[in-house]
Amino acid sequence: MSQPVSPIREPLITGHKTYHDITEDLVSPTEKTTVSWALATMASALLLAYGVFCLIWTFWVGIGSWNVNRTIGWGYDITNFVWWIGIGHAGTLISAILLLFRQKWRTGVNRAAEAMTIFAVMCAGLFPATHTGRPWFDFFMFPYPNTRGPLWVNFNSPLLWDLFAISTYFTVSLLFWYTGLVPDLATVRDRAKGLRRKIYGFFAMGWTGSAKHWQRFESLSLILAGLATPLVLSVHTIVSFDFATSVIPGWHTTIFPPYFVAGAIFSGFAMVQTLMTITRKLLKLEDYITIAHIESMNKVILLTGWIVGTAYLTELFIAWYSGYIYEMFAFYNRVFGPYYWAYIGMMGCNVLSPNIFWIKKFRRNVTITFFMSIFVNIGMWFERYVIIVSTLARDYLPSSWSYYWPSWVEIGIYLGTFGLFFTLYLIFVKVAPVVAVAEVKAILKTAGDQYVGVEAAKKAEAAASH
Amino acid sequence: MSDFTFDGNRKKFLYGMMAVGLVCLLWTFFTDHTPGHMRFWTNFLHNSAFFTGISFISLFFLAAAITAWGGWYIAFKRVVEAFTLFLPVGLVLMLIVAAGIWGHLHHLYHWADPQAVATDEVLQHKSAFLNKGWFTFGTLIFVGVWYWVARKLRSLSLEEDEKGGPLNFTFHKQMRKYSAGFLLFAAFSSAALIWLWLMSIDAHWYSTMYAWYMTASWFVGATALMILVLIWLRSNGYMPWLNDDHLHDMGKFMFAFSIFWTYLWYDQYMLIWYGNVGEETIYFKERLDNYPVLFYGNLILNFVLPFLVLMPNTAKRKMGTLIFVSILVFFGHWWDYFQAIKPGALINVQHLAHAAEEAGHAAEHGSHFVMGFTIPGLLELGTLIGFLGLFLYVVMRQLEKVPLLPKNDPYKEESLHHHVWPFG
Fold this sequence. Notes:
By secondary structure, chain A is an all-alpha fold. Chain A is built from 17 helices and no strands. The two termini of chain A are about 20 Å apart. By secondary structure, chain B is mostly helical. Chain B has helices at about 10-30, 40-65, 75-85, 85-100, 115-120, 120-125, 130-165, 170-195, 210-235, 245-275, 280-290, 290-310, 320-360, 380-400, 410-415. At the A-B interface, helix 8, helix 9, helix 10 and helix 17 of A face helix 6, helix 8, helix 9 and helix 10 of B.
């Protein structure tokens, strides 16, 4: 055993697993197809198809098929964009920052969280790409020497920075995820036969598990973690700049960047909880994604929920403190205006409801965790809706005040992104081990229940006294 | 050696530092020609707020580490605890500033001047928050609660030494409860105090980021000072169990949070610059136009140098480099507080001077170089030495009282075998 582990730490792998058990338990789900998996995938694909239909409708009819208007130019599109991009934050946080902090519980959830990140960013990217209604002009967004004369992208615009930030984030997340997958793909390859063996062999890139391979793997992981850590902050920081660089009261506030990042981690962890509570049940992974994992993530949710809560209250307070009437009105309007219900949803789900996690019993209850995770994501959706729609609905000119409600097309596209997300997630669950096999093996001796924890310590004590 | 002895020579040295500080403070007071002894009072506020904050943020570090099941820091937990026990002294110092408001001894805060408020709509609006009652009782209650938590965590830790055992987690579990509660309380109370103590010097100006930014500054300053104290203790033969890996990790914290501080600095500056709203830009315009040394020095000391020097992994393992950067960064964040306080205070001086001018007296205008405001002078440095001496004195008094290793902490073994190099 390498370093001592305090018995106060709960084991992260239960059931007295051996290395072989770990391989069996984690790889076997990729080797069989169940009826429930096929049904779920078909249902998701159907939802995706409906989303595609609504997108085609948008392009055919035009953006007029949406209910956004001159006053409220951003509605469901940007709300959903920010919501999805926020969800995509937990993966990198878990894989990069928790790696740097040497948190062993990351190994149970990092693989799925990273996959979720990639899929969520894909869902998010869909909205900026289509919200102009003319996606065939999207190549205008890329700065390259072009034939359009002096027409050039606006480097001063945070919307352009967003394009760079998100594409960088997507690339690094993908690399990170794939790097981690390589040893596990090799494990799957070694158990497979025929064409399956060839395909996994191709993606495993000739991994043999030699000491040199591991050494390079470790170095690369640390470098990627170092690169990804600033990215965790930068992406949502720049998303917040989309709002905060403006002079719209309620948008122009300096706390936006860190508060958006905290909110993103908050919603990201909630989505990880939603997916993991279901996945661990269906794939019987309770020994690898233990109650201790769930409790840790619930603590992160409680923490980030309060960071967001502190920011909400800071904003309200400073809006009053500023003595600036437009700022005061913007916040009065958020709380008591026509969208008061969204504000209640936001405050209720994001700031009030996570407080049940102060109680240990609730943090360790899977059912409560599942419902709470849904609550948090509803709350975070409302937050974006409040920031975007309720702010725009009351601009400087009362004659142009308006009220926005999405059309069936906008709702359809949103539902479609769920279809995309779950289709991709289900395919991922089928083709790759959802829990990182090699990384779980690496912590077995320092986190397996036969080695650490109170029980193991008591046993060792008893053995020593005999 | 597991017990620290605060012997006569060490005491004499720190008394000497305090004496330097006291002389400088008195010198400043009597040679200070700014109205309301502004140079003296800003120096007093600057150091009081800075060191109280370092104590507060050490408590925050302790509470965060306990809540997050951190094990590595146990080797120097007693030093962190000692840092938190400066809080009562900090409370007294800040109450002196408050007493100054009640006794009209200073004009640090424009909002505390009834004549100014009478003709200023914005200040009238803010007077529900910016008033001497809130200032005093906010300070008293919030710092008081911080101190109470610090004492509680300390006494639980000592009780654990006595009554704890290898599988007895009772005390640690209690610590967790206090810590988690404290984190929530700290988030709101520190922001409120930073608004009252510091942001309200520029009484009209506001920024939602300000409190978080100043807190990050405290954090880096505290990390730097703690590294220095740890290296000093080890080089004097105390805490032989403290290894390079503990200091390496503290170095990482200093590096990471220097970048985090820069991140908050950049967000605040960039958004205000981009928005270009006069009420907000005035804060930075004043600093850019009249305090270029402070403004750019802040970025060089607190971002450029630590970023470049601490970037290589090995830099955080060379004690000379670590000491050098820690001194730089500690001074840098003291500098950051200086640039946060002085320009606004000088504007308040000008308000006073104008009022005096109207009353027929000679006025002093401050758009030119003013020693002790435009840059820190020797008196400011002397005052820093004095307060630092006071802080270290309190820390060492606390270190002396208890064993340097919390022997029954559940994470003790983990920390004593802490190992992070090269990959482990």
